[in-house]
Design brief:
The complex is a heterotrimer. Chain A is of the alpha+beta class. Helices cover about 30% and strands about 25% of the residues of chain A. Chain A has 12 helices and 23 strands. In chain A, helix 10 crosses helix 12. By secondary structure, chain B is α+β, with helices and mostly antiparallel strands. Chain B contains 2 helices and 10 strands; from the N terminus they run βββαββββαβββ. The N and C termini of chain B lie far apart (about 55 Å). Chain C folds into 3 domains: about 190 residues, FAD/NAD(P)-binding domain, CATH 3.50.50.60; about 130 residues, FAD/NAD(P)-binding domain (3-Layer(bba) Sandwich), CATH 3.50.50.60; about 90 residues, Sandwich (Immunoglobulin-like), CATH 2.60.40. Chain C has 10 helices and 30 strands. In chain C, the strands form 8 sheets. In chain C, strands 1, 2, 5, 6, 7, 8 and 22 form a 7-stranded mixed β-sheet that branches. Chain C has a 5-stranded parallel β-sheet with strand order 10-18-12-13-14. The longest helix of chain C has 19 residues. Classes of the chains: A alpha+beta, B alpha+beta, C alpha/beta. Chains in contact: A-B, A-C, B-C.
Chain lengths: ~500, ~120, ~425
Amino acid sequence: MYDIAIIGAGIAGSYIARELSRYKLNVVLLDGENDVGNQITMANSAIVHAGFDAPSYKLKGKFNAVGNIMYEKVCADLDVPFKRCGSLVVAHDEYELATVHELYKNGLINGVPGLKILFKEEVHAMEPNLNETVCGALYAPTAGVVSPFELCVNVAENAVDNGVTLKLNHLVSDIKKIDDHFSITTNAGTIEAKFVINAAGVYADDIYEMVGEPYFQLLARKGNYFIFDKEVGNLVNNVIFPCPSKKGKGILVAPTVHGNILIGPDAEPVEKGDTSTTADRLDYIKQNALKNCPSLPFNKIIRSYAGFRNTPVADTFTTTDGDFIIEESPVKGFINVAGYESPGLTSIPAVAHYVVEEIIKPMIPDIKENMDYNPKIRPRIRFDELNEEEKIAIIKENPKYGKVICRCETITEGEIMDVIHRSVGARTVKSVKKRCRAGTGRCQGGFCSPRVIEILARELNCPLDEVMYDQQDSTYILSGKTKSAKSEVKS
Amino acid sequence: MKKNMTCIVCPIGCQLTVEPKNDGTFEVTGNGCKRGPKYAYAEMTNPTRMIPTTVVIKNAMLPRLPVKTAQPIPKGQIFDAMAAINQVVVEAPIKTGDVVLKNLLGLGIDVVSTRTMNKC
Amino acid sequence: MIYDVVILGGGPAGLAAAVEAKKESAENVLILERDRELGGILNQCIHNGFGLHTFNEELTGPEYAEHYINQVIELGIPYFLDTMVLDMVDQGDLKVIHVINEKEGYMAIQTKAVILTMGCRERPSGAIGIPGYRPSGVFTAGTVQRFVNMEGYMPGKEVVILGSGDIGLIMARRMTLEGAHVQAVCELMPYSNGLVRNIVQCLDDYDIPLKLSHTITFIHGKDRLEGVTVAKVDDHLKVIPGTEEFIPCDTLLLSVGLIPENEITRNAGVEMDSRTNGSVVGELRQTSMPGVFACGNVVHVHDLVDFVSEEAVLAGKGAAKYLKGQLDTNITFTTLNGDGISYVVPQKVSLKNVEEKVTFYMRVRQVFKDKVVNAYIGETLIATKKEKKLLPAEMVNFKIAKNILAQYPAGEIRFVIEEAKK
């Protein structure tokens, strides 16, 4: 019997697990996928928002700016790439300038530090590649960019290092409240726990319905994105937001923490799980991004993708108003962390702290601190970022760091072997890519994916054709060996 | 009956026009060199193709050894040939030109290695 | 130790350049190769058709490579395998190449001359942004070529190929021979991007349909590829609504173009040509950086390895001349791609370095029939070449003798496609 079961090992579930590992609790982190952070965490804008958008009376407004300030420490502790690059909300006319002023005021209420309204000249001096028509902007120096999947993987690793049990490939199909505990049925056995934290992303409403009367409903809103080659990575320095409208934050142009440029997302209600890109949507993004950044070179695109947000539906059936749902549900001992869309990534350090300190702790009176809790993980070697002396030294120590596997991003075999053998180790080509960027460059794995498959097969001691790209069993890369077709003769 | 075909003897790919004559020979036009008519004749009477493929190799750096038919084989027998070649297993070391399968399908044509592979 | 010539890449260009430089009396030549063996991409190109121009016989890729590898060994040219070049720093007379490998660790190799022969890479699916999902089962054709031919693994059973580049066509046959079923090859353009012989030998022979003016509009399957939607495009390459067709498949191969791999070149500050995506080169393949030469697919994507070897000989000669202090740096001519032509290599000519002739390589923008390629200096027609058929997929080589060029003052040589005079 676990003290607490967390359903969903995305950024929310994983971070809450790590926060819980500060205490002597028996915690299990469950996910249906074969890796942590494989859905919403995997495909989003990767932005650490300053916190001027949401009104202060909402949880989104309450946690955003606070979460933002916590990023430095957690990213330092967990060796996660994070860059406080700043953001600009750009205005093209008087109406939009008025919106910029409103955001400024709201930002002050939310406690966002350093906000400044920039005049036209100041904006263009800061971002020479913006459209001439931009006539002013809200500058938020605390906005940043992060690698969300690396954050999630490392948070989960730290949680596991501090005693949390991670169970991947455990898809929850039923939950029953039995006396003082919950019995969670999964495709890989039954888990029992005294408390449940539901952090199942876009499926959180389905999960809750297994145990209680529905009171919220989540809508998957898909967003398409493009990633540009690093060659044009200095096109913008800040995250560039258009002025928000009723539809949302609009199409942004942002640097990524690894030096690419990202544009997106649109917002389209879809069925849960639909992460397909569509031609018209991709075109819509292009056209809108060009409004702010007319020199975007579309021949330098290296990837397009789509992810979804889990937006709470505000209608008569539900009691939510589009805010995060972070509370103990009507079912006692069952805590929902749902509707956790943007700025969820930014807010999570603050939200996880809140969930543990304000919700869980009062439920467990005899809770004890985990004296062995270590907030840090062993940093990864990032060969490309080392100086000459360090490079010489590391190859001497481990020659595998002398063998470059991903040519585009200069990722060595040593780094790939390391991410396979960590406590939340990579098991698939995609999970290697998430952790150490092998295959994220301009050739998109053309050269290195066969090498990565070989390394995975060797390190995990399995044949090449058992290595998966992503999901277990359904994303095989190779279908078998040549020469196995026996003497069948075609006519 | 006139027939148009693309000569594939070399990468230039001349567009040949082949006209059968009464005496059983063919009149070929459009060829850039004298290999063209030869090709056209063969295509009209007995089209043949080289088969470059691989065989299983043991104790080598790689699990497959590239091979080819030493001569072009009849086009109609390509899949039979593949079935026979797929059964071949060789051991390193192998040198370029080594015969890995003698007298393929009784055609009098050998399958030979197209690279050297050392034992490892 | 200071090397005379260091060669960045042990593929066909690097091998031939090394051999030529050594023969032309460059003493200390070194080849740096990032893969586990010399030969480059030829090792996975097990099909025949290589070397007709060079050796007058039809070799397979490994045989063609072995021919040069043997020469490298006979000439005692040293090479490092599994060695990655991190960067190249120009220090005037000396260049410093920073490399790493497992055995020697981190090295700063000093050399007087450098020949860049890094080759090219395939354009990935991300770059062409096909809408839909991103399942496993979508590969570039070259990646699969290596899996099938070298590692002995098949990627799937029901195959669709997008793009009619040569690797795509070759893989259509290869997959068929290994028991897979190739449903179709789709090509966006109204003409094929591969050599004619490959269409005949790899598609027609096996009744694999080549769907010209077709593209893929959607990739189906969240986990493993389940199929693709294929549609016809109009003259402006826009999808014609209503022509969509679902083709079930578990494997999609992309053969949608090759891009010269010039990260090192760009970072070092060598002048680039946006038309070729390679460096600007002279008649002996000298770049804008004295002592740095480039040849093969890193300069412009070739369709035949024979011409890569031909170009590599020039670069080898050039590097040897440079070492002897005999390389003339005065530029006599520049070249320009005129009507119908998308690029010309070399971009510059120093006539003093030319022995008998200059071979200009170029590609046409579209399919032409019964035209001439004309070379002009100013308004004067200096050379002409009749062509029955010109295809973008097939490189044109246009030779102009030195004694013709020598009749003209310095200037610009402009190549254009024109009507053949009756």
